[in-house]
Design brief:
With 224 residues, the protein is an alpha/beta fold. It is globular. 34% of the residues lie in helices and 25% in strands. The mean pLDDT is 94. It has helices at residues 53-61, 80-92, 106-112, 126-129, 135-145, 162-175, 194-207, 217-221, and strands at residues 4-13, 23-29, 49-51, 68-72, 96-101, 118-122, 149-156, 178-183, 185-186, 189-190, 211-213. The chain is built from eight helices and eleven strands. It has one domain: TIM Barrel (Alpha-Beta Barrel). Strands 3-1-2-4-5-6-7-8-11 form a nine-stranded mixed beta sheet. A two-stranded antiparallel ribbon has the order 9-10.
């Protein structure tokens, strides 16, 4: 039977990106194909509950009507076979689908993109993640995702390089999407100072007009 491990389901305020401050229902999937150095999310499968698509839509509907469902993780697209069954049910019930993704699984995105509305796609920087992640794969992902409301989220720290900035700007330009710069944080503290954040913002702006600097607001509000 098609099931997914869901770590938690909760109604809260979106703390990242251009939809910051909006109410969303967060559905946190277990499993991820990456191990980013800055990841602070608990998506441990042993603490999760298994759901079938029918069970999950019933749980989602218990929170209300016409919800914005934030599929988060982990990496939701790891559970693409489950999503292919769940997302049609969610759309039939009038919900909006907000996909938070690391943008490394473009072929999986193809399978469910028709059921998504908003895509928050990371551009993963090797300097921040501690991993060598292909900018070519990200570019392919963004090319597929640009048919939807799309923005790029970029977590950065003091190791950010000009080459990474150039690659990121090229990807955003080609998909005509906004870049959201997000300083890496440890708890509620920035890993970089205000002056460096301003420098990074201005450097990105030299290459591309559609850039915003938005930290993780939910951490300052002390909410999930």
């Amino acid at each position: 039977m098609n099931k997914a491990h869901i770590r938690e389901i909760f109604l809260s305020i979106q703390g990242e990106g251009p939809h910051v401050g909006e109410e969303q229902l967060f559905v946190r999937f277990c499993g991820c194909n990456l191990k980013c150095a800055y990841c602070d999310t608990d998506f441990e499968r042993s603490k999760a509950k298994e759901y079938t698509p029918d069970q999950l839509i019933k749980e989602v509907n218990s929170f209300g009507e016409n919800l914005v469902i934030s599929l988060t993780g982990g990496e939701p697209l790891v559970s693409v076979d489950f999503l292919k069954n769940f997302l049609p049910l969610a759309k039939q019930n009038g919900h909006t689908i907000y996909l938070e993704t690391n943008a490394t699984l473009p072929e999986y995105l193809k399978e469910i993109i028709n059921y998504t509305d908003i895509i928050s796609a990371d551009i993963k920087l090797p300097s921040a993640t501690g991993q060598e992640i292909s900018f070519e794969t990200a570019a392919h992902f963004f090319d597929i995702a640009k048919s939807k409301e799309l923005f790029a989220k970029i977590v950065f720290n003091k190791k950010l390089t000009q080459e990474e900035i150039n690659h990121s700007v090229t990807i955003a330009k080609n998909s005509n999407c906004e870049i959201i710069l997000q300083p890496e944080m440890s708890g509620d503290k920035f890993s970089v100072n205000t002056e460096f954040c301003e420098h990074v913002f201005k450097t990105f702006k030299k290459g591309y007009r559609r850039v915003r600097l938005i930290p993780q607001v939910h951490k300052f509000l002390d909410i999930r």
